[in-house]
Amino acid sequence: MEDNKLIDIEKKVLENYKIYSPSKIPLEKKNSKKYFLRREKLFLDCLKLPKKIFLGANLLDLGCGTGEADLLYAKWGAKLNLVEINPKSVKQLRKYFSYFGLTKSIAKIENKSLFNYNSKKKFDIVVSEGVLHHTQNVEKGFKKLSTNLKSGGFCVLQVAFDSSQLQRNLQRFILDYLIGNQYSNKLIEEISKILFSETINRANKIGGRSKKQIIYDAYNNPKHKGINLPNLLNIFKKNNINYYSSYPSIEPENLINGLHTLLPSEHVLQNPNITAFQSLFFLLASYNDEKLIKNYSKDLVSLEKKWKKLMKETTLSDYEYGSKINPTKISNYFNVFAHKSLKLLSKRNSINEKKLIIFSNELKMLMDILKTKDIKKIKNKINNFKILFRGYNGVPSNYIVGYKK
Ligand SMILES: C[S@@+](CC[C@H](N)C(=O)[O-])C[C@H]1O[C@@H](n2cnc3c(N)ncnc32)[C@H](O)[C@@H]1O
């Protein structure tokens, strides 16, 4: 029964992806430099995986799509084993590899479902980006990653967490509510363009995919689930995979740990529910912090001045015996510093109560207006929101890396 559903979803997802590719981006040589550089940053700076580890590595990509990411693994010296269910994507992938002169890096391409993939060989690196959340059984899919991984090897997963995906799934719910049993690809396209133009335009501008590709991937797609993060961490555990890194980070900010106690990553493993803090951030993500940082950059300068003054006047950065500092002087200078710090903290865009209250109110207003089924009214309401369906519309993708014990 469960297997029938898995096969049924697989078929429907494939049908949808045959209409518009979910992954192809215009990657001619002149456009590729920027794309490759960003990916390198993702791996080195964010996921802590230097390109060196790809050199000579046997890499398996489950659901490789049109192969843009694999081109870079090939450039870094990996030997590629690629699995993809969509024959159209495999065709495009071959074109890319020949265009970039990297065909020799492909050890094997298999045009089949990842659920039917078996290999005697174990791999140094197994990746699967943007795939498991389009399948019926994430746990079964993840098992394919872990069983094909060598011990000590890394698996790189890109999925949508349920927190990150909540706003997008609300959008899918709204489309379904408005369309009812008139369901058609055309109607989904039309209404999503009206109601969710900000999300679609933003993804188009940043990711380089066409609007149709984005709409078919996000809205027409029969399966786009959000994966529960504590559950995923338990799946890691069951499969002998240790959590290693993530982007955006699933580790709560500001954990203070000595090396003799649990490290942040060990906290995450021991108590997966601790990721609730970051999940709130994934849920509410709207705008980039750049504007905010500009907003408080002057405060940073004046805070640093107050800090230096505190250090100088109290000599507390390098206290020497016999300095005879007046205790009141210490508390006064600290007070000035604390005052400036509070000002800065109030401007910081961290996860805060205010944001969650606004989001909650907007969600209530949206659910109320939705009942009118009046698209114009719904659109006007959405246009006035501050957080819901604004900017990122929830974190668009989550990367999580593990290694096999
Ligand atoms: C959003 S795309 C991501 C493609 C690529 N990994 C990337 O990051 O650009 C999802 C891909 O997963 C493939 N896919 C979905 N279900 C699959 C399955 N059961 N087995 C293999 N591939 C699958 C789709 O055909 C599609 O190419």
Number of domains: 2
CATH class of the largest domain, named Alpha Beta
Question: Structural class, from secondary structure content?
Answer: alpha/beta
Radius of gyration: 25 Å
Gross morphology is globular
Total strands: the figure is 7
Number of helices, where a helix is a run of at least 4 consecutive DSSP H or I residues: 16
Q: Could you spell the SSE succession in H and E letters?
A: HHEHEHEEHEHHHHHEHHHHHHE
What's the rounded overall pLDDT mean?
Answer: 94
**What's the architecture of the largest domain, going by CATH?**
3-Layer(aba) Sandwich
Q: Separation of termini?
A: 33 Å
Ligands, ions, cofactors = S-adenosylmethionine
What level of helicity do the residues show? 40-55%
Q: CATH homologous superfamily of the largest domain, by name?
A: Vaccinia Virus protein VP39
Give the CATH topology of the largest domain: Rossmann fold
Record the strand order, biggest sheet.
3-2-1-4-5-7-6
Essential attributes:
single chain; 405 residues; Rossmann fold; seven-stranded mixed beta sheet; globular; binds S-adenosylmethionine
Structure description:
The protein is of the alpha/beta class and 405 residues long. It folds into two domains: 2-162 and 224-284 and 396-404, 3-Layer(aba) Sandwich (Rossmann fold), CATH 3.40.50; 290-347. The chain contains 16 helices and seven strands. It has a seven-stranded mixed beta sheet with strand order 3-2-1-4-5-7-6, with helices on both faces. It starts with a helix and ends with a strand. It binds S-adenosylmethionine (SAM). Residues 10, 13, 17, 22-23, 63-65, 68-69, 83-86, 89, 113-115, 129-131, 134-135 line the site of S-adenosylmethionine.
